[in-house]
Amino acid sequence: MATTSHIAVDVGRRARQVVLAAALLALSLGGSPSAKSSSAVSSSGAYSYNWPVKPFDRPHPVRGNFGDPRTTFDEHATPHGLMTSRGTFGFHMGVDIAVPDATAVYPVRSGVAGLRSHETVTVDSGNGVEFEYWHIVPTVRPGQHVVAYQTVLGHVRTDYGHVHLSEIDHGVLVNPLAQGHMGPYSDRTEPQVASVSFREPGRGANLLPELVHGRVEFVASAYDMPALRVPGKWTELPVSPAVVTWRIEQVPSGKVVAGERNAFDVRRTIPSNSLFWNVYARGTRQNMSTFGGHRYWRQPAVYLYRLAANFNTRTLQDGIYALVVTAADNRGNSSSFRQVFSVHNNPRWLR
After folding, report:
1. C-alpha distances out from residue 277 to 83, 132, 286, 306, Å
2. Cα–Cα distance between 209 and 196 in angstroms, integer?
3. By three-state DSSP, how is residue 282 classified?
């Protein structure tokens, strides 16, 4: 009876759960643990798989978002090191789900297990879909068939306090919190744009908004907070928004002179790590970032986005404008920030 129940639920997870909601409900009444974890709709829409830790059918705190910056600086923590240091820089390739150490981790889809490292289990679920579970002590062997929400893949390693989940679709990393993926998931926090600045391209020196001229780099500081409070030393630390856009309006008319443009969008997938400093601006660092081999615990992240790397202000008439920057999350919560600036390319102003 348990085998039949599992097969029905597992097939249901591979299809749209909304269509099979009634069947899943019937199974759950029969007492199957897998069926009880099934749910067709969260407060924000349909999803195709549950969480990899118990309880499967309830949201858990996410302390690291898809696309967050991951930064390790070779130089020490100085202004020069922050702006120029080499190191290891990349986009976060999944989500970090905060749970206690030793928590059991389960596959969100059935499939064939593999070991990518001593702390990473992969599950090939077929049809080009694969999941990775990082920072666990594996309890499965390569080639073993694992069953969604029944087989224990491993337990969260000591001092990690989270499991990292990556979803890969035909070789492309996918945001696990995108609509229609992991659930139930609800988010009512609004990402915030903290500030906007104007830099000389390639130099990082800030320009006053009162006198913007020539070619300029637009930079915005934006952040979000986890939908659920993260316990422990990661409490109150930010995560990145999913989308950052910008436009330019005339002041005071509000006429749009440069239409809405995307500077950052990881609602579906992430850019190549080779583009890291094309997307994030210098000064960016992750939560508790590492400088010169030392990790600075509890220091919050700073997320700076390059809106435009080399904007030619001569395409605008001299006058007063507003750079409007909007940050949004995976569920459409958003907020905007307006920075007024004056364009003066007339030579008499520059003298």
Report:
1. 11, 26, 14, 8
2. 10
3. coil
CA distance 51 to 8: 19
Question: Taking the model in full, what pTM does it have?
Answer: 0.86
Tokens (6 digits) for 347? 């030579």
Token reading at 162: 């989270």
What single-letter amino acid sits at 166? S
| Dist CA 137 CA 160 (whole Å) | 11
Q: What is the pLDDT of residues 106-128, one digit of tens each?
A: 999 999 999 999 999 999 999 99
Select 192-350's CATH number: 1.10.20, 2.60.120, 2.70.50, 3.90.1530.
2.70.50
Secondary structure class of 81 (helix, strand, coil): helix
| The token pair that represents 115 in the structure block | 């070991």
Residues of the chain within CATH 2.70.50 domain(s) are 192-350
The pair of three-digit structure tokens given for residue 128, joined into one six-digit string: 């080009």
**CA distance linking residue 251 with residue 258, whole number of Å:** 13
Tell me the pairing of strands 129-134 and 120-126.
Answer: antiparallel
Q: How far is CA 55 from CA 263, 278, 342, in A?
A: 36, 39, 54
In Å, how far are 74, 159, 185, 267, 313 from 292, measured between CA atoms? 5, 22, 38, 33, 38
**Segment 223-264, tens digit of pLDDT:** 999 999 999 999 999 999 999 999 999 999 999 999 999 999
